[in-house]
Amino acid sequence: MPNVSIDTLVCNYMCPPFNHSKEEAFVPPTRDSEVIVMEHVTKVELNYIQYGLLQWWPVRLSFPALKTIALSDYCNTDAVHNVLAGLAVSSQVRSLEAKFEGERHEDGPGVARLLGHFDHLETVELQSFNLGDRDIVPLVGKGDSESRWTLCPKLRRLHLVGCSFADDRVASSMVDLVEKRALHGPRDPRRDGNSDAGLVLLEEFVLRQIEDRTSVPLWLPGTIGRILRGEDDE
C-alpha cells in the first residue's frame, strides 16, 4: 500500500448508500485485519456523519500523531462515543472542538463522558451545548493523591461558544470551577506556597456569543474574568 502523507482527515456527510440500511453498509472487520497506521494525520474533522459507519476505525486504523479533533454534529450516543474512544486509544489528543447538534438526551449532552475519552486535552471548545450542573462539577474532582484532576488533568483553555444553561446551579458551578482550577484563582494552591507540580491550572475560560441571556447570568463573564486575572471580586 502506498504511503500517503496527509495531515488533516475530513469526513463529510457520510451515510449508508442509497437503498441500503446502515447494517448492510457496515461490515465489521475481523480482529486479524491489517491495521493501517495514519502516521501523519494530526487533525480529524467529522462533519454530519452517521457514526455507526465509523465504528470499525479502532480495529482498522491507528492515529499515533493525532492532536486535534473537530466534531460539527456531536451528540451523546453510544455510536459517537465508541468512535471517540477508538480514536483515543492510539493518540494523545490535545485539542477538541465539538458542536452539539443532537436531540436532547435524558443524560444531558454528556460533557463529562465526551471529555473523559481524552486524558491529554489542553484546549476545549464547546459550541451550542445546553449545559447542566453534572457537566461542570466533574471538572473540579481530584484523584486520591489530590495532585491530579480526575477529568482533563492538563486542561489550560476552555471556551464556551453559544452555550446555554439548563438551570441556575450551572453558573455557581462554573464560578467554583474557575476558583479551583484557574491559574490566578483564590484557591490556586500556588498562592499559599503549595506548588503542586501535578496540578495543571486553567489559563483561559471564555464565554462567547451568549444568546440565551435568560439562562446565563449577566454577571458571570465579568466574575470569571476577575478570577482569572487574580482580582478580588467587587
TrEMBL record:
Gene3D superfamilies found in the cross-reference section: Ribonuclease Inhibitor
Protein name as annotated: RNI-like protein
Species per Swiss-Prot/TrEMBL record: Exidia glandulosa HHB12029
